Amino acid sequence: MADYAELIRTIVSRLVTMPDDVDVRQEIEDGKVKVSIKVNPEDMGRVIGKSGATIKSIRVIAKAAAIKSKDKIDVVVEE
After folding, report:
1. In which order are the strands placed within the sheet that holds 32-38?
2. Residue 12 CB coordination number (10 Å)
3. CA distance 33 to 31
4. How far apart are CA 74 and CA 35, in angstroms?
5. What's the average pLDDT block by block, 10 residues per block, for the chain (79 residues)?
6. What's residue 25's pLDDT?
7. Residues facing 24 on adjacent strands
8. Which three-class secondary structure state does DSSP give residue 79?
9. Would you tell me the Gene Ontology cellular component terms (predicted)?
10. How many CB atoms lie within 10 A of CB 38?
11. DSSP three-state, residue 31
12. What 3-state class would DSSP assign to 70?
């Protein structure tokens, strides 16, 4: 299993104004890789984006990275 958390952390850290507050965790849940993102509440809008466009793009990148190792991945933003 690849380290998807590091990939997501790299992307999200460049989007937010407070990169030190970015916390990304990876765990296996029901046979899927679950990547949870926590950011400073002030940066939540930057990660989600207009109509969810930014988080959708992050999910597409994560799924593309997971294809090679045939992992199923779910990326969630936690409050």
Report:
1. 23-29, 32-38, 73-78
2. 24
3. 7
4. 6
5. 91 97 95 96 97 98 94 95
6. 97
7. 37
8. coil
9. cytoplasm
10. 17
11. coil
12. coil
State whether residue 2 is helix, strand or coil: coil
DSSP three-state, residue 36: strand
pLDDT, position 26: 97
Amino acid 33 reads V
**Residue 60 CB-density burial (10 A; 0-12 exposed, 13-18 middle, 19+ buried):** exposed
Task: Using CB atoms within 10 Å of the CB of residue 4, give its burial: 0 to 12 exposed, 13 to 18 middle, 19+ buried.
Answer: buried
* Residue 58 CB partners (closer than 8 Å, separation 6+): 8, 11, 12, 47, 75
Residue type, 53: A
Q: How far apart (Å, rounded) are the C-alpha atoms in residues 49 and 64?
A: 20
